[in-house]
Amino acid sequence: MGILEKMRLDGKKAFVTGGARGIGKCIAIALAEAGADVAIVDVDLEEAEKTAREIEAANHTKTIAVKTDITKPQEVDDMMARILEEFGRLDVAFCNAGIGHGVPVEDDNLADWDRVIQVNLNGTFLTAQAAGRQMIRQGGGSIINTASMSAHITNIPQKECSYAASKAGVIAMSRNMAVEWADKNVRVNTISPGYMATEMTLNDPGLVPLIGKWEEMIPVHRMGRPEELQAIAVYLAGDMSSYTTGADFRVDGAYTCF
């Protein structure tokens, strides 16, 4: 069997949170192209259903949409029940949903800080925990959590204290999960993207003026494309990465090298 065949995900069942658009949609497409059935998990059901239809039509794999607020434990439990009802098992969890809140520290308030932590850290915990419980029962699986280069550096010129704190927490949490579940054949890794040219970023009036500054600071002098995250996600989802757990993969154009 050649290397490309070994990278296939035929027969695997996956979910992607925040899968309706952006990085999540891009990874869901990659998993489906590699042969996996995928649940598009998002709080925006209409957009999730649209994405699911697009992916299923293009790849002829089973793709479903599941509306879920990942900060609510009962909704996460319901999400898992629906996925197991549709797929019968879970092999891959891409816990990706996240938000930002760029304000100076002195102007932040506890409610807004809490919201970022609730979605980015607590929501990732709840969905990864639910996936891990199922994977332990069935004998193994792969969990991939979206962190950020912001966990490793301080963003400038924008102010991202709560976002950076939440993503640093995702990395620490994922490493602990990886060690605790290593003997249960459940692998946990993180991907830390740099500045990515998603539709949201390219159309955000608060971020567009910063792109030129970012590109000056990025050693490769451009933002990344979401598609440039696909190969590492497929690798981590499949059996080729069976010895890879507790790792963080920075995909940032060398931004965090200095």
From TrEMBL:
Q: Which UniProt keywords apply?
A: Oxidoreductase
PROSITE patterns xref list: ADH_SHORT (PS00061)
Query: Which InterPro entries does the entry link to?
Result: NAD(P)-bd_dom_sf, Sc_DH/Rdtase_CS, SDR_fam
Q: Which Pfam families match?
A: adh_short_C2
UniProt lists the family membership as follows: Belongs to the short-chain dehydrogenases/reductases (SDR) family.
Which PANTHER family does the record match to this protein? 3-OXOACYL-[ACYL-CARRIER-PROTEIN] REDUCTASE FABG, SHORT-CHAIN DEHYDROGENASES/REDUCTASES FAMILY MEMBER
Q: What is the name of this protein?
A: SDR family oxidoreductase
State the species of origin.
Enterocloster hominis
